[in-house]
């Protein structure tokens, strides 16, 4: 069961240039009052929990989505997409008279982008709309980034995870969770129930208030996380199970069209592998294969692999996961 948001993504491809600022930052050159012809407009379904539920379903899992959409055009598209993919939508709340989450992703000629985002009805996930009993029946829960207003469901989640028969947990924190980090008692308690904790390098250092990944790993292991993955873009991913530290590189020569949803794809592939009884090095390979496929297409879901495609890539694509000394 994936918990979190669903977002309709509108990609607007332009031929406009970007203007360099200081510290390597660039911004799109948008003349005020101007009229700019776009090259292509692509509408896709996205959002963390939408991506991970679709990804897990394609990989052969019985996947469900728990979140909130509106009855507007975007919400209808998001619901139709989930149902077309075979995702269980019984835990979705549909709200009348409001706007579903959406983003406008403006890309410039060098591939860089600016995202205009409205959280919309994603912010309405809270105690009243969270079906704790249905979620508790899942074998594995995938907790994606949630809005600050939705943090009230943490009590329900913790009560669920301390039960005798509780689901396994994959957690990809975001937003206010990253800023609060290990300073929050409830978040530290959630870490202790994680079978797979997913962070990028910047998030990991902010979440643990540390200056290097070795110290971050030690803190997260001490808090009780079973497995931790820290991704670092083109440098690959570091992960530990408390006994070994592993490094998985990116796939050499991969085509990059759009990086939207790469993190969700990695987490989906890694979670599927663990559900399938594959060890952590194999889970890193599966996550990397899924993310590599996603960045080769526009949008967060077009490149998500099926079970057959994943197993073929795992057997046919060289990807050497190295064992490193565990941080002490």
**Class of secondary structure makeup:** alpha/beta
Span of the ends, CA to CA: 35 Å
Tally of DSSP helical segments? 11
Q: What is the topology, as strand order, of the major beta sheet?
A: 7-6-1-10-11-12-13-14-15-16
**Arithmetic mean of pLDDT:** 92
How many strands, what sense, and barrel or not for the largest sheet?
10 strands, mixed
| DSSP, total strands | 16
Helix content: 25-40%
The SSE order reads: EEEEEHEHEEEHEHEHHEHHEEEHHHE
| Dominant shape | globular
Percentage beta strand: 15-25%
Task: Provide the domain count.
Answer: 1
The CATH superfamily turns out to be: Ribokinase
Give me the CATH fold name.
Answer: UDP-N-acetylmuramoyl-L-alanine:D-glutamate ligase
Rounded Rg = 19 Å
CATH architecture annotation name = 3-Layer(aba) Sandwich
């Amino acid at each position: 069961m994936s918990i979190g948001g669903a977002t309709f993504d509108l990609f607007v491809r332009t031929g406009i240039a970007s203007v360099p600022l200081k510290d390597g930052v660039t911004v799109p050159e948008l003349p005020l009052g101007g009229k700019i012809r776009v090259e292509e407009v692509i509408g896709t379904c996205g959002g963390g929990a939408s991506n991970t539920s679709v990804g897990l379903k394609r990989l052969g899992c019985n996947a469900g989505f728990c979140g909130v959409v509106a009855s507007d055009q975007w919400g209808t598209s998001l619901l139709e997409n989930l149902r077309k993919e075979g995702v269980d939508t019984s835990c979705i709340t549909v709200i009348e008279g409001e706007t579903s989450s959406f983003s406008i992703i403006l890309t410039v000629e060098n591939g860089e982008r600016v995202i205009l985002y409205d959280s919309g009805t994603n912010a309405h996930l809270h105690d009243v709309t969270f079906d704790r009993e249905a979620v508790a029946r899942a074998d594995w829960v995938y907790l994606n980034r949630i809005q600050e207003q939705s943090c009230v469901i943490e009590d329900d989640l913790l009560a669920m995870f301390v039960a005798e028969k509780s689901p396994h947990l994959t957690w990809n924190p975001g937003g206010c969770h990253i800023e609060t980090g290990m300073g929050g008692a409830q978040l530290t308690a959630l870490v202790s129930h994680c079978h797979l904790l997913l962070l990028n390098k910047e998030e990991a250092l902010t979440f643990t208030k540390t200056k290097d990944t070795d110290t971050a790993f030690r803190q997260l292991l001490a808090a009780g996380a079973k497995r931790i993955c820290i991704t670092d873009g083109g440098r690959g991913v570091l992960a530990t199970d408390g006994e070994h530290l592993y490094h998985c590189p990116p796939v050499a020569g991969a085509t990059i069209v759009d990086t939207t949803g790469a993190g969700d794809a990695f987490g989906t592939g890694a979670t599927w592998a663990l559900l399938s009884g594959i060890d952590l090095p194999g889970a890193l390979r599966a996550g990397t294969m899924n993310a590599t496929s996603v960045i080769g297409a526009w949008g967060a879901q077009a490149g998500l692999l099926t079970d057959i495609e994943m197993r073929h890539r795992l057997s046919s694509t060289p990807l050497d996961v190295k064992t490193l000394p565990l941080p002490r």
